[in-house]
Amino acid sequence: MDSNKVIHVKKLTKTFGSFTAVNAITFDVGKGEVFGFLGANGAGKTTAMKMLIGISTPTSGEATVAGFDVFKNPEDIKKNIGYMSQKFALYDDLTVKENISFFGGIYGLSRQNIKEKSNALIADLRLDEISNQLVGALPLGWKQKISFSVALLHNPKIVFLDEPTGGVDPITRRQFWELIYKASSQGTTIFVTTHYMDEAEYCDRVSIMVNGKIEALDTPKKLKEQFKVKNMNDVFLKLARG
């Protein structure tokens, strides 16, 4: 595999009995790329992501993530990626500092490393005044920004973001994407699912799943040219309608 390709997927398939949730999908993702993974509810994108992060075994096909095989090395994959979602990010009954320390420990960082990274994160996000507050008392936008930063604590090669900006206001969403661009510019690959089609415009490339298959994959600009539309929402609607 090309050393610049940190995710390699070929004919990856997941079936549940007679139902095929993910049907022979193939794609690569490069180092430092912001890769949008789109699809309506039930399209198969969540099932595909679960295979890539090492928590669901594929039925067939092949895939490597951060250089590790999804069949043979799922535990190594988990150690080399970051993950956050809208549904689960941080523990509400712990303070900001306690959350950072807790996840730093899970990632296997030393106490000294946790302390250094905690101080840097708090300074970078300007969290000094709220670092000892319970996360549950913070606005959702702050929770998501802190959660993303925590997912980067152990310097993962790839961060998987599952609907990371759901429910937050447009200004906070834009600020969150600035964090994504910063991480990407430093070489971290970002694999993101979103149902906000304007966010698809921010990605380097976008894949769109329909009924378990990838029906389109290219840059937002080229996809809009291919489908002769002005925005990604119209690309999505055309594919959804068949």
From TrEMBL:
SUPFAM superfamilies: P-loop containing nucleoside triphosphate hydrolases. Residues 7-236 form the ABC transporter domain. Keywords: ATP-binding, Nucleotide-binding. The keyword RNA-binding does not apply. InterPro entries: AAA+_ATPase, ABC_transporter-like_ATP-bd, P-loop_NTPase. Pfam families: ABC_tran. The keyword Zinc does not apply. This is ABC transporter ATP-binding protein. PROSITE patterns: ABC_TRANSPORTER_2. It comes from Mariniflexile ostreae. One of its GO terms (molecular function) is ATP binding.
